[in-house]
Fold these 3 entries.
Entry 1:
Amino acid sequence: MFQNLAAIDAETLKTMALGLSAGSIVIAIVMLKVISSVVGKAISTVLLLAIALAGYSQRAQISSCIDEVRTQTSLTTPQTITCELFGQEISVNVPVP
């Protein structure tokens, strides 16, 4: 699924993960208004907050992967590294700082 992201930029990837988190929180708020049963509200809120937490943790994992590469090597040219996103290895373009 994430193999199509082979040429993605690191900042774009982090923004996408943050967008996943924000989007699921917005959907959770909308679902609280739409669903009438308390059990349905609780289940959908917990599920969507878990998705938000997963997106945010993946953003942190990508950031740490990029920071690790930057500290190990002195980047003078942009590099492509391999990081893990939701258990899948993807290639990320790391720009020169």
Entry 2:
Amino acid sequence: MNEQTHATTTSFTLDSAIVIDGHVIHEAGTKIDIRKPRSGELRGLQVAALLQMDYNQLETLAPRVTTPILHKQHVAAMDPADLTQLGSEITDFLLPKGAKASSPQA
């Protein structure tokens, strides 16, 4: 039985524009799609640090799983609230089913 209980993509909307050197890279309101990372895309990363939303780990993983691609310099220019949204969505992909079932729903 092939039971699909978890989505393989999710998205969030930027609250603030990503601006680098005075140029708007992504406007506020841009939808950022995040694909569930495959094991190979976690190469060189520490899953425990990702679960703690470690900046360096998120910065490395983001270009591998986002559309439009959030390159390292884009992540560095993100508003902290948007970075937290990105980290939360990635963290959710990494949690086992049991941890999701026991966490409170908003």
Entry 3:
Amino acid sequence: MPNIKQQKKRVRIASQQRLENLRFRSTAKTLARRLREAAADGDDARVDETHRRLVSWLDRAAARGAIHKNTAARRKAQAAKLRASRD
């Protein structure tokens, strides 16, 4: 455990950031799963809506640094490929 006041603060802030990053990563995985399920069901309206939400969420997560920008780009490409394959 840190003894210095600033280091105590850094531990506290890092813990909060870790939880926030976990929220972004977890929600991105959930949205990707929902997109796969919607594509499997053949529900075009739900696929479009879920794809839009997933891309938006990935952009937000990459902008915040929760995930790397190339990871976001890769997942967006996979989602677009999944969306296009249902046509």
